[in-house]
Amino acid sequence: MHEPPLIVVVDDDREFLKIMVAVLRLHHYRALPHLGEEGAVDLIVSEAPSLVIVDMLMEHTESGRRIIRELQKSSATAQIPTVVCSGENRAGEKVANLNVAHYVHLKKPFQPNELLIVIERLLKR
Questions:
Q1: Residue 89's pLDDT band (boundaries 50, 70, 90)?
Q2: Strand ordering across the sheet containing 30-35
Q3: What does pTM read for this prediction?
Q4: What angle do CA 7, 73, 107 make, to 5 degrees?
Q5: Which residue of 42, 68, 71, 116 has the fewest CB atoms within a 10 Å radius of its CB?
Q6: What structural domains does the chain harbor?
Q7: How is 70-122 classified by DSSP, letter by letter?
């Protein structure tokens, strides 16, 4: 039997994580939430998800950027599709400057169906 894709969600907002996990599981994805920056890269490396959703602005303004930068350093994680979430308009530019291969920026707040469309598109690549 085919196992659904695993998606790791990294954010510092507990409510956002709960909502994201509920939406993803409702649509038959396996969702693994992680609160905050600390330990996020280790979790992603160990779990090898199909996709990562990361908030750009968490405890520190560079939190999301640091996570993405670390993921880009390893061939094992550099090709993982990434959805970058942020309330900041320029977050997409910051990620583009990191030369991330497969990413989409979603500005918060966004509708669940917007996220699901982006996930489907990234997973088909």
A1: low
A2: 30-35, 6-11, 51-55, 82-86, 103-107
A3: 0.88
A4: 45
A5: 42
A6: 6-124 (3.40.50.2300)
A7: HHHTSTTTTTS-EEEEESSTTHHHHHHTTT-SSEEEEESS--HHHHHHHHHHH
